[in-house]
Amino acid sequence: MQLKARHKIAGIIVGAVFLLAAPYLVPYQALATQMLIFAIFAIGFDILFGYTGLLSFGHAAFFGLGAYGTGLSLIHLTSSVPLALGMGILLAVAVAIPMGFLSTQRHGIYFAMVTLAFAQLIYFIAFQWRSLTGGDDGLQGVPRPSLGPVDLSSDLVYYYFVMAVFILALVLGVRIIRSPFGRALQALRENTDRAMSVGYDPRKYKLISFVISAGFAALAGGLYAMLQNFVPLFSLGLDISGEIVLMTLVGGMGTIYGPVIGAMSIVYVKDFLSSQTDVWPLIMGVLYVVSVMTFRRGVVKELKERFFK
Amino acid sequence: MRAKSLVMALMLGAALLMVTGPADAAKVVKVGIVSVLSGPVAVIGNGEKWAAEMAVADFEGIEGTKIELVVRDHAYNPGVANEKAKELYEKEKVDVIIACPNSAAALAVAQQAKLHKKLFISTSAGTTDLIGKACNRYVFKWNYNDYMMATTVGILGAKRLGKRWYCITSDYAWGHNLLKHFSEAVESMGGKIVGNDMVALHTSDYSPYILKAMNAKPEVLALLNVGKDAVNSTKAAAEYGLKKKVVIVHALLFEPSIRGAGVATFAGDYTAAPWNWTVDNPGAKDFADRYLKKTGERPHFMAAAVYSAVTQYLLAVKRAGGADPEKVIKALEGHTFKDMFANPGYIRPEDHQQVGKAYLLRVKQPNQVKGKDDYFEIVGSLPAEQAFGKPSQFGCKLNK
What we know:
The structure holds two protein chains of two kinds.
Chain A: H1 5-25, H2 29-51, H3 60-77, H4 81-103, H5 108-128, H6 130-133, E1 139-140, H7 155-178, H8 180-190, H9 192-197, H10 202-228, E2 230-231, H11 238-251, H12 257-276, H13 280-294, H14 299-307
Antiparallel strand pairs in A: 1-2
Helix pairs in contact in A: 1-2, 2-7, 2-10, 2-11, 2-12, 3-4, 3-10, 4-5, 4-10, 7-8, 8-10, 11-12, 12-13
Chain B: H1 2-25, E1 29-35, H2 42-63, E2 67-73, H3 78-90, E3 96-99, H4 103-116, E4 119-122, E5 139-141, H5 146-160, E6 164-170, H6 173-188, E7 192-199, H7 207-215, E8 220-224, H8 227-239, H9 242-245, E9 247-250, H10 255-261, H11 263-266, E10 270-273, H12 284-295, H13 301-320, H14 325-332, E11 336-337, E12 345-347, E13 354-355, E14 358-363, E15 376-382, H15 384-388
């Protein structure tokens, strides 16, 4: 299923032009930034869901922890952007290790339920811990300091910063799945018993995959906190957990590029529809149903099959 | 030939200047509404949208100026509200954003207003942080706030309904704040809170709390919750016969919630509001009738507040001679007005809270209901100074 080199180069050029022009193509710059943020989230989620075959229903926990971690660091500790983002990732990873350790002991639907339960637990801790998180009102007043000499306070400059982070995340994501470690994940997904018989410890690989995807989610969350200048409690909520699954499915799980395209299109279409009509949630629902029925393997995989084979 | 084309170009340029000149002077005022238009609480936002449309049409009719209205749905999600506020201020270039239910959403939009140096009039968020630690000079708070609701019910209730109170409170920021203001009000009138239960949000079984409340033998049961929790707790109180022995008061109860659960559920209960469509302000009845004709419903107080806020904003723009935010702020600060919503209303310069009389309402018995949404009877009122407290007590420092 490897694409021809010609197609690859064309794809890279189209992608690069799109990324550079995106802030001018969408209704407002912050929307383009948000599309990329969810794309970063989707890269990490695809490593876990698409390549390891583990469907987590609780990844909003890591997105939100990244957002709160970064936001709290920027408010109380530091004005260094990389350090604050790192704190957000660290917080999410610190939670992901025990959470992943416990939830990867179960398979399939039980794994999904356990992750869901943990995520709700974290949601309610943030909901009640008002003095730290602001509770229901969210964490207000997250600053967006400058990155060295670069002033990030303009939404356009911030977009290009997020774009750079996105490209790094994409390269890292592709490196991870093409590495021997990534191959081992896919082997586990295809046939756990056979992978075990040649000496791979499934628990260890699943846990590492879980923690990596949590790290990507937290990075996205941290960027989101700086984009919004606040952290809504909603960032830990069920809706985000569900949405990232849909983004990955619509784009095409197990393709990395698919979930990226899925995430960007869903963020865009949602914003576009909600400015046009009040019944947009209904239309989104219909779109999901249609895309799952006609593009069962996701948009990217279907296109690959139909046009590049 | 060359000279001719140069002259042509100059003339064209002059013509362009003349076209853009006057067009700039007659710049239309652009009003943005960010509210909830989808999901279970869309009933709030739809009302706000309709009221804003009416206010704009009425103002255009009287003044003959063109007003542009842009409406966005935030789906009760603070993150989306923040994005929509950005979009409206930056891309749509609105002069003001009005409405925005959900306290977290309103706090986020208030921050965007400050960043963009444009106005935001919050009408439907209860948090006193908007006139407290999160206040800023670009934000005005219209309509009610949590302090005013709790104080009105607490003071008038302790005076007239009984001295022994039992509270059942939703266990999150909103409930905690409400309980604090509420106990202060009740105690200031010599009343006593004999017991309180903090109950998790979205609890379906209220029987243990109702049984506990019965043992405490209160005269008044205060339900500091909203939506499904309000319905479930009220129904449980009726099932256990507590409703026959005590008076029930609600922190927040308005027409849509009664429409949903049926008037019998809440009959005889008390609540507070800054406005009701039966109030005898000049023009209130007319507004309520026209709203009914347009929408098939009676306006709830959130909708009425948006009508008032849009109208008063446009009048302030007129007084200021343009939509320049700094001049409009001056025109609004300390302004006293009379309209269908507030009679009179006053905008405190210290914290930008619009204050007015507050009302105690009682839900009618089912056989007293005449016509659409005729659920409340106004049974008392509290002067603005008492209902809204002093601006100093919320900790707002506007001019730092």
